[in-house]
Amino acid sequence: MLNFDYKNPTRIVFGKGQVTNLGSIIKENRGTRVLLHFGGGSIKKNGVYDAVKKSLVKAKLEVFELGGVQPNPRLSLVRQGIKLVRDKKIDFILAVGGGSVIDSAKGIGVGVPYSGDVWDFYIDKAKPSVSLPVGTVLTLPAAGSESSFSSVLTNDDGHFKRFLDNDLIYPVFSILDPAYTFSLPPYQTACGASDMLVHVTERYFTRTQNVELIDRLSESVIKTIIHNAPIALADPKNYEARAQIMWSGAIAHNNLLSTGRVGDWSSHMIEHELSAINDVAHGAGLAVLVPNWMKYVYKQDVKRFVQFAVRVFGVDNNFFNPEETALKGIAALRNFFTSIGMPSTLSAIGIKEAQFQGIAKKTKKFDPKKETVGNFQPLAPKDIVEILKLAK
Ligand code: NZQ
Ligand code: ZN
């Protein structure tokens, strides 16, 4: 196990009806003039907007609104939000929605006090030194942005999807009411389950040795998602299943499961390029890629894949043929994704073979000198193309 220094500062307020406390929690965080940031309108249809407004009005907060965040949130709206916050002297940003709304809010939060262009933070040209506080009311468990230190934006100019990781952008609080997820369409429920599951596998497939505790915690989170996603799909208003999924999504990405190890993250980096060029739902892109990434890299550490197969999917361990066991685990993961309605090929999400070289070139590299991405097996562009071919 590696040394680590772990802190997740986001306060999680979990459960039915917790939004009634929203106004007073914002006040505790010294918010007085609030930007209510949201997406394309789901919160107006399912009653979340009304509940949020009621709590803000009761607390006598001044509220300004900016809706219209698209899935794969755009830099242009973040720039618009920065201007609005400056003009109206807003001091608190409230994101009500899924990962896209939260990431957009985080972008506004770091962009307001910065004299340059906020995109600088996403292309490693500058580091933020301060952020306005951001709080969230989560309506889609998936990205884990409600308690992550990340924000992912798409630059409309050139379709670059890039991330910012920084301790300053942890939300100060997140309200997680599982009942707010009853209205999710099945496809979004499944995309969310896939994304959070992959947040765990990105960490689980590590070359770091002696990481038993986090391995076992990770396996539990994955098994909880696999158990509850089909229940929520069959019975969308099942509060208990929605609650297990919602808490799993936060735990999957609050970095607890990163402690003491080095994660991989190449599938995320490649997927971001799929989303950027074709507006693919992030979880669907991951469901296509990850089993193929696994097939490409499993020989780096067959034992780890055997452990995954046996402990997560209950695959019968063939002691004389560990590779067979490892491959059965990968196949079981593919079957799970398919069973919840996720696509299994790139063609099903509109990505063509002619685009593979471009995707490989564009994928953000961890080691710019070697042009590689990922840690379990560092992937050069030619490896990315091979994985994309497996996934076509
Ligand atoms: O826009 P509205 O009308 O609200 O509809 C949304 C959107 O169309 C809808 N939705 C959300 N809650 C709903 C609902 N519909 C009905 N009922 C509800 N309760 O769902 C659609 C998708 O929303 P979006 O926010 O885009 O999805 P998600 O939460 O999966 O976020 C995806 C984004 O997060 C990024 C992804 O790359 C992608 O851009 N990620 C952010 C991370 C982070 N900040 O830590 C990490 C992740 O790995 C990921 O990269
Ligand atoms: Zn993700």
Question: What is the structure about, briefly put?
Answer:
The chain is an alpha/beta fold and 392 residues long. The chain contains 15 helices and 8 strands. 47% of the residues lie in helices and 11% in strands.
Explain this structure.
The longest helix has 23 residues, at 212-234. This protein has 2 domains: 11-180, Rossmann fold (3-Layer(aba) Sandwich), CATH 3.40.50.1970; 186-391, Dehydroquinate synthase-like - alpha domain (Dehydroquinate synthase-like, alpha domain), CATH 1.20.1090. A hairpin with a 4-residue loop joins strand 6 (150-155) and strand 7. The model has no long low-confidence stretch (mean pLDDT 97). The chain is built from 15 helices and 8 strands. Helix 14 (356-362) packs across helix 15. With 392 residues, the chain is an alpha/beta fold. The chain starts with 10 loop residues before the first strand and ends with a helix. The chain is globular and about 70 Å long. It has helices at 22-28, 42-45, 48-58, 75-88, 99-111, 119-122, 186-204, 212-234, 239-253, 266-278, 282-297, 302-313, 322-339, 356-362, 381-390; strands at 11-14, 33-38, 62-66, 92-97, 134-138, 150-155, 160-165, 173-176. The strands form 2 sheets. The chain has a 6-stranded parallel β-sheet, sandwiched between helices. Strands 6-7 form a two-stranded antiparallel sheet. Helices cover 47% and strands 11% of the residues. The relative contact order is 0.11. The site of 5,6-dihydroxy-NADP (NZQ) has 37 residues, from helix 2, helix 5, strand 6, helix 7 and helix 10.
